[in-house]
From TrEMBL, chains A, B:
Domain of life: Bacteria
MF GO annotations: DNA-binding transcription factor activity; transcription cis-regulatory region binding
Keywords assigned: DNA-binding, Transcription, Transcription regulation
Keyword check for tRNA-binding: no
Protein name: TetR family transcriptional regulator
DNA-binding region per Swiss-Prot/TrEMBL record: 29-48
InterPro entries noted in UniProt: DNA-bd_HTH_TetR-type_CS (IPR023772), Homeodomain-like_sf (IPR009057), HTH-type_TetR-like_transc_reg (IPR050109), HTH_TetR (IPR001647), MftR_C (IPR041347)
Pfam families the UniProt entry points to: TetR_C_14 (PF17754), TetR_N (PF00440)
UniProt domain HTH tetR-type: residue ranges: 6-66
Organism: Actinomycetospora succinea
Amino acid sequence: MATTRSARAQRLENVALELFASQGFDETTVDELAVAGGVGRRTFFRYFPTKLDVVLGELDDGLAALVGALADQPGDDPVAAARAAFLAINHYAAAELPALRRRLGLIEDVPELAARATVRYRDWESALAADAAGRWGDDAGSLRAQVFGRAVVASMRAVFSAWHARPEADADALGALVEEAFDALSRGFASP
Amino acid sequence: MATTRSARAQRLENVALELFASQGFDETTVDELAVAGGVGRRTFFRYFPTKLDVVLGELDDGLAALVGALADQPGDDPVAAARAAFLAINHYAAAELPALRRRLGLIEDVPELAARATVRYRDWESALAADAAGRWGDDAGSLRAQVFGRAVVASMRAVFSAWHARPEADADALGALVEEAFDALSRGFASP
DNA sequence: CGGTAAGCGGCACTCGGTGCCACCGCCAGA
DNA sequence: TCTGGCGGTGGCACCGAGTGCCGCTTACCG
């Protein structure tokens, strides 16, 4: 339970991302992944419920981190709490950035992956909405809180997309984009 | 080209939604849909590239309508323009509401459909971002415009979700929710 | 009336995903 | 040491979505 994932799954994942990068996601069959990972096809599906999950798997860890980080934030301003939580989550070591880039690239331009990813984000949206409703004193289903939750996640997608579009952006640039997005959300989009 | 869809496709679609409602989306095979529509399986796939498209097909029409409505809006305030555009688009006749409800229900709770729908919404996001960048005088890739586009679509999803959750909400209620969501986006989420 | 093109649909195939089951290695307990 | 679970493995057969191919009908046009 302390081990987030077995060593074998890790190996499988690395080999798979390698193949996806070299020949494309759709062009790589599960059979190839299994063979390349030295494992039976059936076993592959025990580690990853779906071919998509090889790429998306870690998003769930991200959700857990988000929930935890949100809970750590004080105050009654959901924007400030969400901003701090996302900044806290998105601390990547320089060594992790290439892998992050590859993942984001896949998610960005394989429609199937983009689709599945946004479904995963639903839980993020709910978590943010619930947190905001709590801080505002709204009831759980409040439209404002729902809009907030979804808008925040949408903004973070925009941030990742913008960051990924700049080939040499580093971890600090990511933080700056997060700040910028939250500024916009906080201030609103009305013309002055 | 004037005819948005052939009569046969329309029949196919009605029969399919009927079956989805009565026995569920996943539990209905394309074979059944073809048989029920009095058409060959192969032909079914000529009308709908995917089983999902039976439910989602009309979203593309919605995009065209959105783009048109946005172009009709004057002024340099993207929020006002988007608000007016969405209000213009979402005029449903009372007779259409039950069908809309069924569609939304399916999209809401069949994950596969929710996933595919959000991919379709990418084009909406882009259209809104481009429009906003134009009105603000930002360049096309501006983060603020990207965030705006995505936040608007996210809000509209929240609106449809909220509307669908209230069984007896009518067309006016939908408009009111749209207003409320845009108010929040316009004002921003900062605490006073 | 003959020819041609477009829509139709059957057939066979690929690929992702699942249920079933046999097998292997490990660890208890007698 | 033998024996009986038990978890992980992976082969096999199957299902459903989606696609390419090809032969057929039908309707339109010279």
